[in-house]
Every structure is written in structure tokens, then in C-alpha cells.
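wait is this the right file?? whatever heres the structure
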């Protein structure tokens, strides 16, 4: 990471805990989390369980651990999980479902990471004797690699109904659930209460240094605790971290709307740069994917050049990039990043070889 990095659009995990959050952490009441004696962690878990319309919750070090514990509770060796083809659990979790639960994931075709009751019904129809047992439906709210798309409440409900009537459990990867809540005005419990398990991430748009909170029924949570110990996810005085989460829930949720506005601005301004093409036709939350093939520059070259100026944008493939707005990105940061990219592209367009090529 370059020392002059000052506009970091690589992810909403780039947020740094501010002074007020650090003060809340320093003042936290603490105890032994594994014994259920950490008051701040207990307060966070109760609050998130309530927020998500679930009976109980547990504090975990990361979102991936939330997903993997939920999968391990729901699935057994030889089971099948259904998820959209771009799901985080497919491409970005070290094949944890296979390693820990012995389960495979069937990738469902989707539209921006969203499938519907019909898609799920079709996927579940016609099981043969040698088919794996379909056991779990996983959905992401919002969909990271769907450009931050939001599952409509009705579609979620229909998918849950199909899952339930086929005896499947349901899991919501809510890494950015609160982005969906703020963008849509629909409550977190309305989105999440019918799922068998759901979690939200504290270390993304909410600005905490660490942590996710996984929620479900009391019986789900009992088994989840076994897996938490097994994964080494049991903590001690985790209240220091939980206090950051409580602070974030009080102060950093409504402001996600600013990130969404900034992302829309970013997308609009990027689309005005010759050769840059937005991957998605809208920007509902805070994720902007774009293709730079038409600029004559590779994503890697753009990334390196911008890094030299203290600006970071993520590289997805040779020509695709991802920029994410968050707590530490202002409107003027958005403008500065786009201006820097526009200058790069313009320079490329006027280099002698390109100019001659006409
Ligand atoms: C949709 C989704 N799920 C899960 C995760 C994993 O979260 P964590 O980085 O906290 O492990 C991410 C992280 O980017 C994500 O985008």
C-alpha cells in the first residue's frame, strides 16, 4: 500500500475506525465472551438479533466465518447448496463449503445475482437417485458482484417459500444488508426474519475494524457455537470490538445513503469518460463495476498509474474494475478519482502511436 494512498475505493472494508468509535471501544465494559460474560458483546448480539428479527446472535471475527458456520450447521457431507453464479461463497471463501461441510455449491443463473422462485423451482425439479441432496439456498443482500443489486422483498419471500416447501434451509449473506435497508427503506427484519440464518458485516460500510454478527433460531445458534469453538472463533474480551459495532449501529447506518449518492455520482462521471463502460445499468447502493477495454489501457495499468497518485481502484479482470464508496470517501474524493482516470485515458488517446492509429 503506497504511503500517499488517500482515496481508497478498493472496498468498503477500507474504512478506518474514527476517533469517536475508538473512544467507545476504549470505554467498553468487557468480560469473557466464551463464557457469555462479555456485556458489550452480549448487548451487540441482542441488538442485532432484534434488528434481524431472529431469536439469537453470535459475534464472529469475520463475514466468511459467519457464512461457513451457517453452512456447516445446515449441511452435511454430500449435500448441495444453491446460490447465484457470482456468490461470494462460490468464488471467494477458499471452497470452505467443500472443506468444512463436504458440500458442493450449484451455481444458479441469475440477473445481477438475483434469481426467482421459478428459477429455484426449475433447479429443484427432477431429482434423480444419484443427485446430491439439495439442502440450502444462499442469497446475498446486497449482491456484491451483481453491482450492489438489491433483492426485492417479494422475490425473497417467494424464494424462501419454494425452499421451505422443498425442505431446504435458507441463509442470507447480509454482508451489506444495511445498504439494502437504507436504499430501499425496508427494514432489516422484513428482509431477514424468514431466513434460517442471516448475518451482517460490521467491518464494511459500517466502519468497524473487525467483525460480523450471525443470527438465527436458538437451536441453530446452539449448533453454531460448536462450530465457532471448532473454527477458533471463540473470543475473550471481545467487548472492545463489539463496542465499535454498537457505535456503528448508532452512528453509521443512516449515512450509508451518502455512499449510495457518491456511488451514483461515480458511475455517472465514469460513464462520461470515452472508452469506459459501466457493467450494470444502475447503481442501487455502493458498488460500481466498469470495463476499461475501450480506453486502450488495461485495468492493471490504470490501477498502477492511479496508485502512483495515491488513488486505489480494484482490478477484477484484465479489463474490469470495481470501485466502492464508503465512510472515508467524500464527494470530492469521487471527483478527484474520476478526474485522475479521465486524464490517464486522455493521455493514452493522444500518445503518438494511438493518435497515428487514428
Ligand atoms: C457478499 C460478501 N460476503 C462475505 C464477505 C466476507 O466478509 P469478510 O471479509 O468480513 O470475511 C464479503 C466480503 O467482501 C462479501 O462481499
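ok assuming it is, sequence goes like this
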Amino acid at each position: 500500500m503506497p504511503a500517499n494512498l488517500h482515496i481508497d475505493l478498493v472496498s468498503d472494508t477500507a474504512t478506518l475506525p474514527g476517533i469517536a468509535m475508538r473512544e467507545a471501544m476504549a470505554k467498553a465494559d468487557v468480560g469473557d465472551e466464551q463464557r457469555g460474560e462479555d456485556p458489550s458483546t452480549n448487548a451487540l448480539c441482542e441488538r442485532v438479533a432484534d434488528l434481524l428479527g431472529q431469536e439469537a446472535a453470535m459475534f464472529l471475527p469475520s463475514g466468511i466465518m459467519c457464512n461457513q458456520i451457517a453452512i456447516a450447521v445446515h449441511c452435511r457431507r454430500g449435500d448441495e447448496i444453491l446460490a447465484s453464479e457470482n456468490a461470494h461463497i462460490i468464488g471467494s471463501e477458499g471452497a470452505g463449503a467443500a472443506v468444512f461441510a463436504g458440500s458442493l455449491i450449484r451455481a444458479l443463473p441469475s440477473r445481477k445475482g438475483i434469481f426467482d422462485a421459478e428459477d429455484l423451482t426449475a433447479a429443484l425439479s427432477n431429482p434423480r437417485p444419484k443427485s446430491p441432496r439439495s439442502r440450502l439456498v444462499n442469497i446475498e443482500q446486497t449482491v456484491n458482484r451483481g453491482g450492489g443489486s438489491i433483492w426485492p422483498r417479494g422475490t425473497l419471500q417467494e424464494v424462501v417459500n419454494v425452499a421451505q416447501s422443498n425442505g431446504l434451509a435458507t441463509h442470507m449473506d447480509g454482508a451489506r444488508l444495511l445498504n439494502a435497508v437504507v436504499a430501499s427503506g425496508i427494514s432489516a427484519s422484513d428482509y431477514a426474519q424468514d431466513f434460517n440464518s442471516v448475518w451482517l458485516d460490521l467491518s464494511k460500510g459500517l466502519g468497524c475494524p473487525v467483525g460480523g454478527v450471525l443470527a438465527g433460531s436458538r437451536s441453530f445458534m446452539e449448533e453454531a457455537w460448536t462450530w465457532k469453538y471448532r473454527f477458533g472463533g471463540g473470543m475473550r474480551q471481545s467487548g472492545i470490538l463489539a463496542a465499535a459495532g454498537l457505535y456503528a449501529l448508532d452512528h453509521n447506518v443512516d449515512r450509508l445513503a451518502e455512499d449510495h449518492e457518491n456511488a451514483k455520482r461515480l458511475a455517472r462521471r465514469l460513464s462520461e469518460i470515452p472508452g469506459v463502460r459501466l457493467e450494470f445499468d444502475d447503481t442501487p447502493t455502493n458498488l460500481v463495476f466498469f470495463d476499461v477495454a475501450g480506453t486502450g489501457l488495461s485495468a492493471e495499468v490504470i490501477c498502477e498509474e492511479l496508485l502512483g497518485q495515491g488513488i486505489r481502484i480494484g482490478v477484477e479482470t484484465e479489463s474490469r474494475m470495481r470501485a466502492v464508496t464508503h465512510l472515508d470517501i467524500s464527494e470530492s474524493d469521487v471527483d478527484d478519482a474520476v478526474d485522475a482516470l479521465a486524464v490517464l485515458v486522455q493521455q493514452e488517446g493522444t500518445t503518438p502511436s494511438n493518435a497515428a492509429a487514428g
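The chain has a mean pLDDT of 96. so i think its the right one actually
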